[in-house]
Structures are given as C-alpha cells and as structure tokens.
Inverse folding.
C-alpha cells in the first residue's frame, strides 16, 4: 500500500513539473514573440552610450534635450524642441520658440517641468549622474529616452546619424557631418611627416588648474594631429602638476582650456600657477611664447558643426606655416 502511494505521489510530482516547465517555456516564448513583434513594428531602434536598447514606436515630434550641445545636435538634424536646459541659452545661444520649456540646470533638471512639456522622446547625457539617475522615472512615465556620450568627432557623427534617421533629414547628416569629415581628413593628412610636438594640456578653473590627458575634446584633437600629450604617459600629472615631471618633458606647447562661468577667474588661476614657481619660465613653451588659450566653443563645449574649425585652428598652432592639403 505504501509503495503504491509513493508511486502515485511521484507520478503527480512529475506531471506537475512537466506542466510548470511547459508554462515557463510558453511564457518565455510569449515574451520573446512580444519583443520581436515590437522590434518589427517599431519606427526606429538603436543602442545608446549606456548600452540601453532604445525603441521608438513612432517618429518623435516633441523632443526634450537636457544638454545644450545635444539640443543643438537635434536642431542640426532638422528637429524641434519642446524642452531644454539653461545651458542651451547660456552656452550655445540657441534661438528657440517662446513655447520651449526651460527645465533648469543640466546637473539636476526639473522633472516636473519636463513632464509638463509632454515630450515623446528625451535626449540626455551619460556624463552626469543626475541625468543617468532619471532612467527609472522616465521609464515609469512611459517616455522613451537615450543617453549619449560625445567626446570626439566620431562620437558626434554617430549621434548625428541617429538623430537624422529619426527626423528623416539625411541631407543634414551630409551637410553637418560627412562634409566636415572631409575637412578634418584633409587637415590630418597635412600634418608634416616625422613632426611630433609635445604638449602640456591644462584645464583652468576658478579654483585651480589641472593637467588633462586625451579623454576629452581638446585632447582628442591634439592626438589626431600627431602631437604628444605628456599627460598620456605620466598619469601622475593628472593628480598633481609635478614640476619635476613637467621640466623633464619640457613640452613644446602649453595649451589651455577653461571651465566655469567666469573665464576671467579661470585665467587668474592660470596666472597664479605660472607665478607660483620660477621654473615655469624656464620651459621651452614659455620662453618661445607657445602658450595658447583655446576657445571654449571649439575645445571645451562640443563643437558639433564646427569640429572642422577645431582641427584647422589647432593645426595652425602646432604647425605654423605649413599649409593644409
């Protein structure tokens, strides 16, 4: 009797397990089919800089951009904006409709104002924690969003390609993208063979000055033009401007970008640094007057349609009388 009962219970457990497995497989299949169906019917799908798969079911018409340079990229793609951050006005000087909602600073955009603008797509930056942390709120509200990171012309071209796909204005991808690529390629091709000028790249703030390597816009252009950024091979400079290391490298050029709302305050910090140690005056770059303050719109803010100007200006600084091809 006990044996029969045991067999009966075993059979029931096996049957239950089989049914559960079938249900699980059916649910998985159903989920996969749903995802595939959404992908097949979507207007556009792409992967953003954070690895998120962004799916837009229809062409976005009410777009919000939470960084001034990305707002400009969207406009260069033929789109319109319903909401932007304050830097779109202060740093980019964009001319926007009076109906455009200002959602405040890009570090901490006003979510209530953003939702009030009723966007159907939001463009954000992957470089600011405050914006990365908005992912859950936007997803809960059912608003598609994408996070971008642009530090090089190739990054800009990639973003512009996506944006012009969304607007349907591929003519603007050529006008504001690939045509600039030709200018950059010509400039790089004109770099004198065998010349490798060395550079100390500095970023000046109102509170001090730091060395920068090539993981930024100015650093990328310097590298593309064949110059050697001494901070790329001496990570210690990124933590502290060690005079001994700088004297040993004796850079041919000192190039400076500024950051912050007051360029005057940033340059005051730079002057204070140069006066803090007489050894600065012994550097080749100082003695031969090769200290250059790079314009913020071309080397700190993302140049967008002006990337070509960034390359030609730096070429003229580094290679003087040489002419581009």
């Amino acid at each position: 009797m006990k044996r029969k009962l045991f067999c009966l219970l075993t059979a029931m457990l096996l049957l239950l397990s089989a049914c559960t497995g079938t249900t699980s497989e059916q649910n998985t299949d159903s989920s996969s089919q749903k995802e595939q169906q959404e992908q097949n019917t979507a207007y556009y799908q792409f992967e953003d800089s954070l690895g998120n798969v962004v799916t837009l079911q229809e062409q976005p018409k009410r777009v919000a951009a939470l960084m001034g340079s990305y707002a400009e990229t969207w406009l260069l793609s033929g789109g319109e904006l319903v909401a932007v951050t304050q830097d779109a006005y202060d740093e980019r000087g964009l001319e926007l409709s009076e109906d455009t909602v200002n959602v405040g600073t890009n570090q901490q955009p006003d979510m209530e104002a953003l939702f009030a603008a009723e966007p159907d797509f939001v463009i954000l930056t992957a470089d600011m924690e405050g914006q990365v942390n908005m992912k859950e709120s936007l997803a809960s509200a059912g608003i598609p969003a994408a996070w971008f990171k642009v530090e090089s012309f190739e990054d800009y071209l990639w973003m512009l390609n996506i944006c012009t796909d969304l607007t349907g204005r591929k003519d603007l991808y050529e006008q504001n993208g690939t045509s600039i690529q030709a200018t950059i390629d010509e400039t790089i091709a004109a770099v004198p063979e065998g010349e490798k000028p060395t550079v100390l790249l500095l970023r000046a703030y109102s509170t001090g000055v730091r060395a920068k390597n090539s993981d930024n816009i100015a650093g990328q252009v310097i590298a593309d033009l064949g110059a050697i950024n001494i901070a790329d091979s001496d990570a210690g400079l990124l933590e502290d401007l060690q005079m001994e290391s700088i004297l040993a490298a004796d850079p041919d050029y000192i190039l400076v970008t500024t950051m912050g709302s007051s360029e005057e305050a940033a340059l005051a910090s730079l002057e204070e640094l140069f006066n803090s140690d007489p050894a600065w005056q012994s550097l080749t770059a100082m003695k031969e007057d090769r200290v250059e303050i790079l314009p913020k719109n071309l080397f700190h803010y993302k140049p967008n349609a002006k990337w070509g100007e960034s390359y030609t200006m730096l070429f003229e600084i580094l290679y003087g009388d040489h002419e581009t091809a």
The radius of gyration is 27 Å.
